[in-house]
Fold this protein.
Amino acid sequence: MSELLTAVLSGIGGMLGWGFSDFFSAKAIKKDKLSENSANFLLFSFLSVIVWVVVLISGESIQAISLSTFLTLALLAGGNFLAFVLFFKALNMGSLSTISTIFSTYGVGTALVSFLFFGEEISLFRFFAIVIVFLGISAVSVQDIKSFKTIKGLKYVLLAALSLSIVFPLWDNFLGKQTGFLYWLALFNSIIALLFFAIIKLSSHEKIKLSHGTKPMILSALTYSIGTFATTWGFKATTLTSVVVVVSSAIPLVSVVLGYFAFKEKLILTQYIGIAGIILGTVLLFWS
């Protein structure tokens, strides 16, 4: 298999995996009426189990953890926890097509955060690509042009994307100092699951129980892990990182199609143009 084909296939795996994960999560929340915290708890619990199984199969060593390392990991997990609290709240309020699309721009936000706070260089062309993405977000955010009515859940998904934009470069920096990554990913997801477990246990009106929403959340965790492992395979097996990132970033295409057929969501013309702008800007950003 050629290097380019490997990169494209891994990118498609990421796009489909993460896109379908958002869809199954939306189904559990919207149609099966699973609470946002319960949905998140199930997602990260099943993710943890999947990654721990992969850790055992791969033979990656279980490493000793210092207090400072654990606290750093816990803080990063807390940031990811916050992002998904906000994302699932937005997903419950708004449409899959728009919320998933805006949330998927956290990768672009990460590039901007890395430039602003971590000294990463950015060319004028890449800055132009970021501008295109933000113009696209603006177009997707407006539900009614005449009244300038914005989509439901907008402020929550923007804050969710911002949270991940901050967490990701820190997470990348953390992994760069460790040996391996599967073990740390398993711990990371386990901490997030425990945080949602604590929130539910402290709540007076929520309980952890099996429901109709459990099955779609299992599928959400499975497809999310497929997306993660597919892109990781692409990063490790090829030198074409930009191809993997560009193809996998086309999540909005999956969200729009599934939103249209599964939830009967219809967007206005400017929102479709905005989604195209987000995809174009992301491609230009990571291809350059």
Q: What stands out?
A: The chain has a mean pLDDT of 92. The longest helix spans residues 3-30.
